[in-house]
Every structure is written in C-alpha cells, then in structure tokens.
Design brief:
This protein is α/β, with parallel strands linked by helices. It has 2 domains: 218 residues, 3-Layer(aba) Sandwich (Rossmann fold); 67 residues, Alpha-Beta Plaits. It is 36% helix and 28% strand. The strands form 3 sheets. Strands 5-6-7-3-8-9 form a 6-stranded mixed β-sheet, with helices on both faces. A 4-stranded antiparallel β-sheet has the order 11-12-10-13. Strands 2-1-4 form a 3-stranded antiparallel β-sheet, with helices on one face. The longest helix is centred in the middle third of the chain and has 14 residues. Bound molecules: adenosine-5'-triphosphate (ATP).
Length: 300
C-alpha cells in the first residue's frame, strides 16, 4: 500500500482553544477513512486544514503527490454546507469548478457532464441550482468535489442531510469512487462508517483518541456479556448459586460480564445443561456502534 497523505502533529488553536491538537495519522491510497466525533470535536477544522482552507498553528501535512503551492488539482472538497450560485445550472457550476482546478474548457464541459450523470443528476444538467432539492444539492456538491478526479477526496458530513434512500445512494457512489481515489469523510454516525471504512479516526475535543480499523475499535469497546433469560426468577437464582461467575440479575434475566468473569458461551451452556433450568434465551451481546460512540465520545 502506498501512503498518500502524512499528517504529523497537526494543531489548530483559536486563542487558548485547541480545535485540533497534535493530530498524527496517514492515509493510504484507495482507502477510505472516517473522521468521527461529536459536535465540536474538530472534524471540520481538520478537514479544512487538509483542504488548505485553514492554516495550521503547528504541525505538518504532506500530500505525497503534487506541490503544496497549489493543491487544487489533487484535492476535492465537499464542505459541510455547500453553497451554489442559484442562477447557475448544475452543468455550469460543475464546469466552473472543473475550470478552477485547471482543466481546459472543452474537457471541463465533458467531465462536468459525465460527473453529473455519475452522481445521478443526468436529468437535471440544465436546471438551475436554486431549484435543487437538498438531496440534489448534496449530489451537486459531490460532483464539484470529484469532477477533476482528485487524488484525495475530503468530505465533511457527506450524507448527514440526506434521507435514508439518498444516504444509501451516496454511500454507494462513494464506494465506487474509492476505486479511483482516497477518501476522508467526517460523520457523527458510526453506522455510516460501518458501510465504508478502512480506518477510523475518532476525535474528541480536538484530540485523536482512537485510531484503527472499525473491527479493532469494535473489539476494544465490545464489552461482551452473556445474557440469559430464564422462565422464572427461581431458575435464575438457582443458576446463580451453581455457576462460578458473578452476575447482574434483573427480573428473570442474568447478565455475565465475559471479560471480568472469564466466562465463555460453552461453559455457560454446560452449567445450564447440568442443572436443567428453564431457559428462554441465551445470547452473547456486544456493544452496538451507538454505544461505542457514546463511550468514546464521553470518556474523560
Ligand atoms: P460539528 O460536528 O458540529 O460540525 P466539528 O467536529 O466539525 O463539529 P469544528 O467545527 O472543527 O468541530 O470545531 C471545533 C472547535 O473549534 C469548536 O469548539 C469550535 O467552536 C471551534 N472553532 C472552529 N472554528 C473556529 C473559529 N474560526 N474561531 C474560533 N473557534 C472556532
């Protein structure tokens, strides 16, 4: 794998406030990375620094392609709230942004048209952006970010404004784009990241507090427990007396923490079989993505 971007101790301060502090990470080519974090964690600040729109207070970022003087041909950026001239058509707007990246006139028109078709706006090429729906605007924002085939695509909450159908469609487009480019996108929603992420960067109060594949982060915060639902509270109490583990009991449900109790499913099942308890359900539960988000986001 070839590294496309190296970020080293990148920091942005606004007065005494650290919007991003000592961020270090790498992006490999043709991978997608999700920048996750609660409101105010520093996602937009980080993406804006990478896009060259905000200058870092300290630290370095190195795009291993192109020069730092003019990143426009190499980077595509979708802001959190993209703005368009309402009097320009989708085609005119996309063509204009292609020209800004340095593309010559005829190619800019051709690529703009192809890109709008790719993002599903083929029927609205000549419609004015002012009458686009929210979902269409998001697609137009994506079109202007990819029309010049950037090496690095930076997307600030690309799907948060979309309904579930639009969200799915845009995520599918991004998966296709990953064949040709490297994607870094921000989101609040770990479920989005689950669909398309090789690497997770978890920000909290400007700090990078977790970094790794989604499965590694999931394992770290899985908090596995075996949950047994008995037919009667009496069955549950008998089980608790016979079993070698401490457990939490509520109603007819016993919960055993796998890690602290060194419990596993097969030994739980064998205790259950020996005592002929009336059991309605036994399952291994792990923290949901939402629970993981809350744990990482709120940890101190
Ligand atoms: P959200 O999910 O709400 O979009 P975010 O993770 O993108 O949030 P940022 O917009 O990067 O967070 O903001 C990080 C912190 O930096 C916030 O506390 C914000 O108020 C502060 N901040 C951002 N831009 C500026 C600025 N220009 N001047 C002062 N403070 C700023």
């Amino acid at each position: 794998m070839t590294v496309l971007l190296q970020v080293d101790r990148l920091t942005k301060r606004y007065g005494a406030h650290h919007a991003a502090e000592n961020l270090s990470f790498e992006l490999e080519e043709h991978t997608s990375t999700a920048l996750i974090g609660p409101n105010g964690a520093g996602k937009t600040t980080t993406l804006s620094m990478l896009a060259g729109l905000v200058s870092p207070s300290s630290g370095t970022l190195r795009l291993l392609e192109g020069s730092r003087q003019d990143l426009r041909p190499y980077i595509g950026f979708l802001p959190q709230y993209p703005k368009f001239f309402p009097w320009l058509s989708g085609l005119e707007f996309t063509e204009m942004t292609a020209r800004l990246s340095g593309m010559e006139v005829r190619r800019a028109r051709m690529e703009a048209q192809k890109t709008l078709e790719f993002v599903g706006l083929g029927d609205a090429l000549n419609k004015k952006a002012g009458v686009f729906s929210g979902g269409m605007k998001q697609r137009l924002g994506l079109a202007q970010a990819i029309v010049h085939k950037p090496k690095l695509l930076l997307l600030d909450e690309p799907v948060s404004a979309l309904d579930p159908v639009g969200r799915r469609q845009v995520m599918n487009l991004l998966k296709e784009l990953q064949q040709e480019t490297t994607i870094l996108y921000s989101t609040h929603i770990l479920n989005d990241a689950e669909e398309m992420t090789d690497q997770l960067l978890f920000l909290r109060k400007g700090l990078l507090v977790e970094q790794g594949s989604l499965s590694a982060v999931r394992d770290t915060y899985a908090d596995p427990r075996i949950v047994i639902e008995f037919e009667t509270a009496n069955d549950m109490r008998r089980f608790a007396e016979e079993a070698p583990w401490q457990m939490a009991m509520s109603g007819c449900v016993a919960t055993i923490d796998v890690m602290s109790q060194k419990a596993d499913m097969s030994s739980v099942l064998s205790v259950l079989n020996r005592g002929s308890f009336s059991v309605l359900k036994v399952e291994l539960q792990k923290a949901s993505l939402e629970e993981i988000f809350m744990k990482v986001a709120l940890a101190e």
